[in-house]
Amino acid sequence: MIGDLQGNPEPIEIKLFSEDAAALEAKADEVEAAVKKVSGVVDTKNGVVVSGPALTFKIDPQRASRFGVTADDVAKTAAIAMTGDEASFILQQDRLIKVRVIFPPDVRTSLDKVKALQVRSSSGQLFRVDQVADVDYRERADRNCPRESAPDGCRHRTTGRKRSQAPPSAKSGINWLRM
Predict the structure, then answer these.
(1) CB under 8 Å to 149, separation ≥6 — which residues?
(2) By the 8 A CB rule, do 148 and 2 touch?
(3) Which residue segment(s) compose the domain that 130 sits in?
(4) Could you tell me if residue 127 is inside a domain?
(5) Is residue 69 included in any domain, yes or no?
(6) pTM for this one?
(7) Are 125 and 68 in contact (CB under 8 A)?
(8) CATH code of the domain containing 46
(9) How many domains is the chain partitioned into structurally?
């Protein structure tokens, strides 16, 4: 059965990402206007979600090589410090519970402390992340909306057609949109 006949149309979700919030707003409105012209589109919703502060690690492979590590080694260390690592398991009643080791929140939320994060090379030498990487903090906005914000989330609901079955008007209407 076609999804729409069952009351479950197949949504199409379009996500735009950019560091330039003004350009993102303008392009999102442009995309929505183009999608609304497509035959079979029932409704649209667009919105901005500020994805929150972002830490960007720009690792310099040449600086990292001076300490005997690769950019990947530094990236893994930073990722483990920020999101943790499963170090072990404990048995609680009849279940195994993962034990995650992670830096305390005051370290993960302080730019100066993140820059001072210690990395160990294969020879055992310790050095700071900021000796091999530029660490930046910035706000980011992703043009997208949270699924919780509306019953249909941030989707462009169609009459049940699959993307491969999209009419030529949909394909030609969207192809011209470039950022």
Answers:
(1) 47
(2) no
(3) 3-162
(4) yes
(5) yes
(6) 0.50
(7) yes
(8) 3.30.2090.10
(9) 1
